[in-house]
């Protein structure tokens, strides 16, 4: 049995990363705590309040409510659940751009709401015309993605907010991946920029916390009440989370990471990651590949299937978009040296591919 985790030195496909040392240490200390039972584990419950306060600062919310979830999936499912509880009609629907994460599919199936998936435009952002056409009186929720999984794109959140208000729907922003880099960009994406009701933002992605550490942040605690169920055998009276027992490691590491890194540490990490993404995009373009410009630290490029397979065979952990492009996420553990080594491997493969096959005569 392999008891060592794999190294990160060839991981270019993950949206997660090595936790920051302070986050790792906090996670270890709080491994055996359960914020799902705050009456018994009050220290970690207090830390969770602090986590939400700190997340509120990042997402432009003075008096935030929410909790540390298992990840973006849970936060998205719960956002759909809140909207469904608030919906007035019998057949609520949720409008999601096709760039939306597959967790909305899970939410729709679990919660029995109709998912209206609408196209993105040429820039991989939600098409406002398509959203407007899909939204109607029965729309409970409009979703905007702030840092999409495949191309790192940010939907026009304020404009989506206008449409949501027109049809009396809620607005959810999925910043699971982008939330810890967007504060250092010019994008309008958060509660202070638009009438956002709920948001997913994952400390365990760009936030450099340990897994599992996701965030559901909501504009007011009444929205969280929509999720609350009574908890007879616990000292606390109700629970809004989807899971019962939860990892205190996620909570403590999120607080430790944010305390250490917000804002200066996250800013310099964003700059490093974005520079790396632009360097890689440039290197790939120079080699004749078609590249989707990295507006956030995520690069997609049209690399032939055979090259992709050969790079995988060399141990590079890389992934593909639905359209088949090579996709590289410039997470904090991805250094310029790693990318240079990756491009070096790519060059060696291409040289071999272009050597004419020796003939027999
Ligand atoms: C990663 C991601 C999710 C899912 O989050 P998990 O933490 O994997 O559950 C949802 N939305 C976006 C945009 C993501 O990048």
Automatic annotation (TrEMBL):
Involved pathway(s): Cofactor biosynthesis; coenzyme A biosynthesis
Gene3D superfamilies xrefs: Aspartate Aminotransferase, domain 1, Type I PLP-dependent aspartate aminotransferase-like (Major domain)
Cofactor(s) named in the record: pyridoxal 5'-phosphate
Presence of keyword Transit peptide: no
Residue numbers carrying N6-(pyridoxal phosphate)lysine: 205
Single GO BP term: carboxylic acid metabolic process
InterPro entries in the record: GrpII_AminoAcid_Decarb (IPR050477), MfnA (IPR020931), PyrdxlP-dep_de-COase (IPR002129), PyrdxlP-dep_Trfase (IPR015424), PyrdxlP-dep_Trfase_major (IPR015421), PyrdxlP-dep_Trfase_small (IPR015422)
Keywords on record: Decarboxylase, Lyase, Pyridoxal phosphate
Catalysed reactions, semicolon-separated: L-aspartate + H(+) = beta-alanine + CO2
Transmembrane segments: none
KW Lyase (keyword) present: yes
Annotated EC: 4.1.1.11
GO MF term (any one): aspartate 1-decarboxylase activity
Protein function: Catalyzes the decarboxylation of L-aspartate to produce beta-alanine.
Similarity comment: Belongs to the group II decarboxylase family. MfnA subfamily.
PANTHER family from the UniProt entry: PTHR42735, SPHINGOSINE-1-PHOSPHATE LYASE 1
UniProt protein name: Probable L-aspartate decarboxylase
Organism: Natrarchaeobius chitinivorans
Taxonomic placement: Archaea, Methanobacteriati, Methanobacteriota, Stenosarchaea group, Halobacteria
């Amino acid at each position: 049995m392999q008891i060592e985790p794999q190294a990160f030195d060839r991981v270019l496909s993950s949206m997660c990363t090595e936790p920051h040392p302070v986050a790792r240490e906090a996670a270890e200390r709080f491994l055996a705590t359960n914020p799902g039972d705050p009456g018994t584990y009050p220290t970690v419950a207090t830390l969770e309040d602090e986590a939400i306060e700190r997340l509120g600062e990042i997402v432009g919310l003075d008096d935030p409510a929410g909790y540390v979830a298992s990840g973006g999936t849970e936060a998205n499912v719960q956002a759909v659940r809140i909207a469904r509880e608030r919906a007035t009609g019998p057949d609520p629907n949720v409008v999601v751009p096709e760039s939306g994460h597959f967790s909305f599919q899970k939410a729709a199936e679990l919660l029995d709401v109709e998912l209206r998936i609408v196209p993105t435009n040429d820039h991989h952002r939600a098409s406002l015309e398509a959203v407007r056409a899909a939204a109607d009186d029965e729309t409970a929720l409009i979703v905007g993605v702030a840092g999409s999984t495949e191309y790192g794109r940010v939907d026009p959140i304020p404009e989506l907010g206008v449409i949501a208000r027109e049809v009396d729907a809620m607005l959810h922003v999925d910043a699971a991946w982008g939330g810890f880099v967007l504060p250092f960009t010019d994008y309008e994406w958060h509660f202070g920029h638009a009438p956002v009701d709920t948001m997913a933002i994952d400390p365990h992605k760009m936030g450099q916390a340990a897994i599992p550490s996701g965030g559901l942040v909501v504009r007011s605690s009444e929205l969280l009440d929509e999720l609350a169920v009574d908890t007879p055998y616990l000292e606390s009276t109700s629970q809004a989370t989807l899971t019962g027992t939860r990892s205190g490691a996620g909570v403590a590491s999120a607080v430790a990471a944010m305390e250490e890194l917000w804002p200066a540490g996250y800013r310099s990490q964003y700059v490093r990651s974005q520079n790396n993404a632009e360097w890689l995009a440039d290197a790939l373009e120079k080699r004749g590949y078609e590249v989707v410009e990295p507006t956030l630290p995520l690069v997609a490029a049209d690399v032939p299937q055979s090259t992709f397979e050969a790079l995988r065979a060399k141990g590079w952990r890389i992934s593909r978009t639905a359209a088949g492009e090579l996709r590289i996420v410039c997470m904090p553990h991805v250094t310029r040296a790693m990318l240079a080594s990756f491009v070096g491997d790519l060059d060696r493969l291409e040289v071999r591919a272009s050597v004419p096959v020796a003939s027999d005569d």
